[in-house]
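hey m, so remember when u said the tokens were messed up on ur end? i reran from scratch. heres the input so u can diff it against urs
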Amino acid sequence: MSEFINYTPFYYDPRGNRLERWEVASAGSGHVLRLRGPIEVVEQVQAVAPEYQSRTYPASTVSEWTHELSSPDPTMKREVRQLLELLERVLSLPSLPPIKFAIALDWYKIPVDGVDSREWPNTEVGDLVNKGKYLYKTREEQKDIVGRNLAGRICYVISRHPALNNAEVILNVPGHDWKILSFGPRIAATVAKYRRMLDIRVTARSKFRPEAKSLGRGQSATLLEDQFIVPPEVRGRSALIVDDVFRSGGSMMAVARAAHEAGAREIFGICPTRTMKR
């Protein structure tokens, strides 16, 4: 009599997911990579190693794995292992074309059952963002320290991600007020400096617009349509958009569309935190 195994289904969170687990098994002269995580992880693996082909499970199959990829190579490449280890720690965000894929270092807050979401504590990265954007808003020295800390963390993730590591230029997401150099663009400029990459400054057509956090998803998409200008230096290059907080993704996606229209070859995104709101 066969033993019945009741696997806990993988929960796909439309706000972002970590790779929960993975394993490698021999298969003929090649190998199979089994994943428990979102489709965005599969897309990143195949971007780094196109030789991986998706294998589908029969409809009746009950498994702890969500995806199975086959490779003709007998062993896994070092860069794929490095990517998988990274994707266990960061959040793979939902796909937002023309962005190929985007990553957040962590959630903004830590959910606590029975506690109002406004009272949830910040994650370590969320606390740094909160200090840089709000607590140290007029304290330049402290804000610079926090910004350098976050930029260093972003640079580490970029260095461990084979696709992001090959990006050629950095793009910022302009703030809502043209007179103020917002926290997000400051982080983007610092990442470019640390990585010795070309920092292509994105500008906004409007001198002032409502803050993204005050808008709903539909409002954000409408307001930001054709709002940003990406210089022609991006043409033919791989671009990485650096922002501070990912909410609906409207701002990052609007910059990506402008970059695509300006001729960027491919576009990625990265930010320190993802909000908990849907």
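this time it looks ok to me. The mean pLDDT is 89. if urs says something different then somethings off w ur setup not the seq
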